[in-house]
Amino acid sequence: MSQKDIGNKIPIYKLKAGKEVEDYYDEWTVENKYDKDMVDWKYSGPQETVDLFTKNITNKDIKILDAGCGTGLVGIELKKNGFKNFDGADFSQKMLDLIPENIYQNLFKIDLNKKVDIKDDAYDGITCVGTFTFGHVNPPALDEMVRICKTGSFICFTINLGIYEEYGFDKKIKELEDKNSWKIIEFLKSNYIASKGVNAWLVWAQSTKWKIMDINLRKFTKFVDKTFIEGGKKAKEPVLLVSVAAVFKNPWHGQGFVEDLSPIISDLAPKLGDLLVPD
Asked: Do residues 85 and 64 make contact, with C-beta atoms less than 8 angstroms apart?
């Protein structure tokens, strides 16, 4: 569906990025019309996104950024599902002002089309729902999301079907995969705003921005064992066994007695797996 056709159903899609869109959102907040419209339109993006977090993540204390949080619809779903530690950011201050109290830990104004003032590796997860659409946020924002989330963390976002190729999101997603910045785990079609005939891709990605030096890998070796005869009988097909061993710096060196080794093991295991057994 073209931008013009969708714009006839959802007027904000007719606008260009920047001040024009911000002003529209500010006006949309009057008498809480935005939230009322989302209910009337059966907007499913927030719930579908949080459903993926709930399905894949057991630790409800992880630090999450809800990028483009609007009036807090994703935050409300996160809280309903037991998540406790998440921040919200949006470029419309009036949208932020409508968010109920005690939902987010922190709220701040942000422009996702620019480099964001957030440190590297600041978050354990990111949600971004409803921002990758006509006249809103462009593909380079995904680079920033990878930068500010920790290695191994998850990023979940929607992309309006109408802009997926037109804006170059297909190319950006592949570029980040080719650079080993992330891997796409799920790529689903979201109902999104189906009542208006507007659908989106729902993407579940994991940050994999590690390098060999991140784990101080000294060397690794591979041993291949191929058996042609077993128990005096010739095998129909050779039995292939492959063993891989790695030598790297002890991550607990200098820490004294460490009772719980599992956090670092859980962090290092997928890194070593990707390095030693590439796809």
From this structure: yes
Distance, CA of 192 to chain centre: 17
User: How far out from the chain centre does Cα 133 lie?
Assistant: 16
Amino acid letter, residue 279: D
* Count of C-beta atoms within a 10 Å radius of residue 221: 10
User: Which pair of tokens denotes residue 207?
Assistant: 């940050």
> Of 116, 117, 164, which Cα lies nearest the Cα of 138?
164
Backbone angles phi, psi at 36, to 5 degrees: -65, -40
- pLDDT tens for 195-210 read 888 899 999 999 987 6
With beta carbons less than 8 A apart as the criterion, state whether 52 and 202 touch. yes
Instruction: Please give the full DSSP string across 83-111, using - where no structure is assigned.
Output: --EEEEEES-HHHHHTSPTTS-S-EEE--
Q: How far apart are the first and last CA of the chain?
A: 36
Amino acid occupying residue 266: S
Cα 272 to Cα 108, 205, 216, 250: the distances in Å are 36, 19, 11, 14
How far apart (Å, rounded) are the C-alpha atoms in residues 179 and 79?
Answer: 34
CA–CA separation, 228 and 218 (whole Å)? 34
CA 28 vs CA 11, 25, 37: distances in Å: 11, 5, 9
Between β-strands 198-207 and 63-67, what pairing exists: parallel, antiparallel or unpaired? unpaired
Q: What is the reported pTM? A: 0.73
Integer CA distances (angstroms), 278 to 186, 205, 270, in order:
19, 17, 11
Token digits of residue 52: 């993926």
d(CA 103, CA 99): 8
Q: What is the pLDDT of residues 88-110, one digit of tens each?
A: 999 999 999 999 999 999 999 99
CA separation for the pair 150, 152 (Å, rounded): 6
